């Protein structure tokens, strides 16, 4: 073999590793691009909108400051629906109709100068992906019971039968009908009925409020739990989702040393804030709802 032949052979051999490296690089790039296009894990999560209906337990009444454009409904910048969108950036609020003091009537009738909440929901364009609602507490007269506890006795005759009968007999059909109406107003949305959190100490040893004796604490705690059970059954009957928040404030209920619930007051503004979750309570409720959505995501 001539020296030229030997040199040509060496050049041919030297080029092969470069060709192999280039081929591997191209193959790797092809695989990476293919995986990127086909792998759903890498896709950006879908954005979803929320319509917020209901009463003060959705408006965030216990946690000022409140929106100044519509101050009568006392919608807080710290309200749990807004905290929820901070926890999950794929969520945004397209309608915030929840209003402090609202009963189920506010769903179908004008309240505090605003259109019925269901009317607002029907007119919403585009339609929301999720509708949340807390309702029923004001229908049950729960806030009046708490103020009564503070001023004299929780139940004037010492018995809670009248309040329990109202919750057991009047609320179930009323709530079921209204949950179905919400579903009909936004037929393609997930309807989430958000339960009420327990706001009283789980034992008398944790209670630091002198105005709430042991018997009354048990009565109002039981009434709180009964209301939440009725809400849950009505949601089941209406075939909508129920989101539990009963334990969201656990260890931080009203009348505990590190409470996340505003204390009872007789005069404004304290009276309006009474027995509603503070900013920390709103965050805890938002976390409970975010956990539920994560576990029951139907996207």
Automatic annotation (TrEMBL):
The GO molecular function terms of this record are: triacylglycerol lipase activity
The active site lies at 56, 276
- Asked whether the UniProt record includes Disulfide bond among its keywords, one would answer yes
* Annotated S-S bridges: 73-99, 149-154, 209-255
SUPFAM superfamilies with a match to the protein in the record: SGNH hydrolase
**Keywords noted in UniProt:** Disulfide bond
Question: Which GO terms of type biological process are on file?
Answer: triglyceride catabolic process
Q: Where are the transmembrane segments?
A: none
Q: Where is the SGNH hydrolase-type esterase domain?
A: 52-284
Name of the molecule in the record:
Lysophospholipase L1-like esterase
């Amino acid at each position: 073999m001539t020296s030229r032949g030997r040199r040509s052979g060496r050049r041919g051999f030297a080029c092969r590793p470069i060709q192999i490296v280039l081929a591997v690089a191209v193959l790797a790039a092809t695989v990476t691009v293919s995986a990127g296009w086909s792998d759903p894990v890498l896709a950006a999560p879908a954005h979803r909108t929320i319509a917020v209906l209901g009463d003060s337990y959705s408006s965030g009444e216990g946690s000022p400051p409140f929106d100044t454009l519509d101050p009568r409904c006392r919608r807080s910048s710290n309200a749990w629906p807004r905290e929820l969108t901070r926890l999950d950036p794929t969520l945004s609020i397209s309608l915030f109709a929840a209003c402090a003091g609202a009963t189920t009537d506010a769903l179908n009738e004008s309240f505090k100068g605003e259109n019925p909440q269901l009317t607002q929901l029907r007119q919403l364009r585009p339609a929301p992906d999720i509708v949340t609602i807390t309702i029923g507490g004001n229908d049950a007269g729960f806030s009046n019971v708490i103020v009564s506890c503070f001023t004299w006795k929780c139940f004037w005759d010492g018995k809670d039968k009248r309040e329990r009968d109202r919750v057991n007999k009047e609320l179930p059909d009323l709530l079921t009908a209204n949950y179905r109406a919400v579903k009909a107003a936004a037929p393609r949305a997930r309807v989430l009925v958000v339960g009420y959190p327990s706001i009283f100490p789980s034992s008398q040893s944790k209670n630091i409020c002198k105005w709430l004796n042991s018997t009354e604490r048990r009565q109002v705690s039981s009434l709180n739990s009964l209301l939440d059970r009725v809400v849950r059954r009505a949601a089941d009957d209406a075939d909508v989702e129920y989101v539990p928040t009963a334990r969201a404030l656990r260890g931080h209920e009203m009348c505990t040393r590190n409470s996340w619930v505003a204390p009872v007051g007789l005069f404004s503004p304290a009276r309006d804030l009474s027995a509603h979750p503070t900013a920390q309570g709103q965050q805890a409720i938002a976390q409970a709802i975010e956990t539920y959505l994560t576990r029951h995501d139907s996207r």
